[in-house]
Amino acid sequence: MICITNDGSSTIFLPDFNEYYHSKYGAVSESAHVFIKNGFYFWKKENPNKKYCNIFEVGFGTGLNAFLTYNESKLILDTKLMYTSVEPYPLKLSEIHQLNYSKKLDDNDKIFNFIHDSKWNSPVQLSKNFTLTKNITTLQNFNIEMNQDIIYFDPFCYRVQPEMWSKKIINQIVNSMSKYSVFVTFSSMNILFDLLKDLKLNVEKIPGPNKKKKMIRAIKN
Ligand SMILES: C[S@@+](CC[C@H](N)C(=O)[O-])C[C@H]1O[C@@H](n2cnc3c(N)ncnc32)[C@H](O)[C@@H]1O
Questions:
Q1: How far is the CA of 48 from the centre of ligand 1 (A)?
Q2: What number is the average pLDDT over the span 1-11?
């Protein structure tokens, strides 16, 4: 079910799980804060000389994080982005067409639709410096390539999907991260904080998006 969040951007609500794909206080503002500002731009600031950036996302969903990252890649021409995502339950085209991200974000090149129309399970070059690979699979069944620079950890929350926040999964992800890479998520849960700390990452709780007080960011040393 499509609904409109407080910043005017749309998201999806799953009544059976009482769960939204994004914050009901603002889908675009949440993604922009958690993943773009505190993930992508934080990594860029810490690694100004890196010319390649591997981004791995858990939960492709509406494609909003991929779309926002693509938009930023138009401004950061000195870095080639390889964006890989996993999604076991792709949305129907009829749902995607009801999302208003293209309209809200002046998508003159019609890239949002292109992102969704592009094929699964193989790399698609969206521009000179942005390559997208969407994989139809669960994270559990996916072999994450090594040397990830940024992790966008965006599964459903612990209440809905506790298995995604387990030691096994977090270990799998952290193993794929390169030195000085950055892990970001909307969650501020202590279970996750402690797991990341036990794996020797530098973990912090930083201000969250919209009305959310905190989110987690962790850096691999
Ligand atoms: C919070 S929503 C996605 C948000 C998405 N990044 C976006 O901007 O729309 C979580 C996503 O994780 C997907 N998901 C569920 N189980 C998964 C699994 N085992 N592995 C990877 N993704 C999963 C869901 O289908 C859903 O699309």
A1: 30
A2: 96
From CA 40, how far away is CA 81, in angstroms rounded?
10
DSSP code at position 64: H
Query: What single-letter DSSP state applies at residue 76?
Result: -
Instruction: Give yes or no for a contact between 130 and 115, defined as CB atoms under 8 angstroms apart.
Output: no
pLDDT in tens, 163-217: 999 999 999 999 999 999 999 999 999 999 999 999 999 999 999 998 788 999 9
Tracing tokens 């969903």 back to the chain, one arrives at 61
Alpha helices in 167-219 (DSSP H): 167-175, 190-198
Q: Which atom of ligand 1 is nearest to the CA of 20?
A: 1
CA of 49 from ligand 1 middle (Å) equals: 32
Instruction: Measure CA of the first residue to CA of the last residue in the chain; give whole Å.
Output: 41
Torsion of CA 121, 110, 128, 83, to 10 degrees: -40
pLDDT of residue 108: 81
Contact 188, 213 (CB under 8 A): yes
Q: Residue ranges of the domains in the chain?
A: 28-219
- Ligand 1 pocket, 47 CB below 6 A? no
Task: For residues 9-28, give the mean pLDDT.
Answer: 96
pLDDT of residue 109: 78
Q: What class does CATH assign to 28-219? A: alpha beta
Residue of the CA atom closest to atom 24 of ligand 1: 59
Q: At what angle do helices 167-175 and 190-198 cross, to 10 degrees?
A: 50
Total-model pTM: 0.98
50 alpha carbon – ligand 1 mean position (Å) = 29
